[in-house]
Every structure is written in C-alpha cells, then in structure tokens.
Amino acid sequence: MTTTAVDPLVRLRQSIAANDPPITTTSPEPTATSDAVENLAIASHLQFNNPQHTYPLDTPTRFISQSSSKPVDLRSIWFAWQNKDVNIPDYIASAQQLNEELASKHSPIKVQNLVFVEKLDLITWLEGASDDSDYIKGLESDASAAKSAQVVSGAAGGVSAIPSSAAGARAGKTIDPRLQEIYNGERRMGDRNTVLRGIKPTNKEEEAKR
Fold first, then answer.
1. Do β-strands 60-64 and 71-73 pair in parallel, antiparallel, or remain unpaired?
2. Residue 96's CB: how many other CB atoms inside 10 A?
3. Which helix (H) or strand (E) holds 53?
4. Which pLDDT tens digits describe the chain residue by residue (210 residues)?
C-alpha cells in the first residue's frame, strides 16, 4: 500500500460518490485491525480503497479558508465531512474538544473549524451537488475528476444545475438547493421612480402643475 500524488480532495469526493468512505488509521500501511481508529486525536492517516491510497492527515489540501488564507489540512476536511449534518455551534464545540485532546497529547496539530459558508461550500462540492467551489484552488484535472465521480456513482450525465438569481453569481455555476433558497430570498429593488416615489406611477404633467 503506497501513498500517491492523487489529489486528496478529488479522491475523497470519488469515494463518497462510490459510497466507499475512507478509514482513519494510525499507520501509513495498516496491517492489523487495531490500526484502524475513529479518534482523530489518535489517527495519523486516511486510507482509501479501490484503488488503495493513503494520505497523512496533516496533508495540506486545495481548500483555502478565508479566515487564515492558508490551505486547510486533510484532518480538518475529514472532520468537517463527519460533521456535515451538525449545526455550527455543535461543530465548533466538537472541534474545540478535539483540539483540547490533541493538546493533551502534546501535539502541535489543531483542527480548523470552517465558517458556515465555507463548510456548506465544501460539503456541497464533496457530495457532488456542485462542480464548482469558491474556496478550492483550481486543478486542471477537476473536470475529468468530476466526470469520474459521476461514473463511479452511476450518475453519469451530471447533476442538474439550478441557476442562481444572486447578483454577481458566475454564469453556469451549479447551485445547491440549500443555497438557492437563500438566493431566492434576496430583496429585489425597483426602478428609480419606484424607490423615490413608491409604487404609484409618477405623472410628470401633474407634477409640473404643482
């Protein structure tokens, strides 16, 4: 079993699409059942199957957090995925608890908790609901990787796109339904007369007589 140069974010997305999630281990080449652990304060590697790939959990990924402007490590990415259905306060509390456990083991490692929009963006991309991300640095093989994930999951043909009504949204971007609900709630402003004088049409002749 060897560690390869395949992008870990792409590999994670493919494994999720195939319903074959990786496992956390204490060794780059686990040989015993005891090497597999769920505790991220103990685990050191993330192992994928079919094909087999192993990555250190401290591997920097292409996901760049705006709060730090630095790559988020694989441990933090996997932790966010494990807590994808957890609300933000509980997610932050769990990250703090994990960091305290890491500190108790005299480890310099810390899990970075993502803010709401970053976490939602990551989960949406990993699930395959969107082929685009505002926080993942581009990779030339992204398009082929996305197609590969769809083939693996049996969803060849892609995920239907829901156009965004948000101002400044990039053309052709696939929007997750959860984000679409937020965009649909945006307030739309009228023209200048509507803003200044209300809904009633302005009659310029009557206005001049006044």
1. antiparallel
2. 13
3. strand 53-56
4. 444 468 999 999 999 999 999 999 998 887 767 788 999 999 999 999 888 889 999 999 999 999 889 999 999 999 999 999 999 999 999 999 999 999 998 889 999 999 999 999 999 999 999 999 999 998 555 555 555 555 555 555 544 444 444 334 434 445 566 655 655 554 444 444 444 455 455 555 555 555
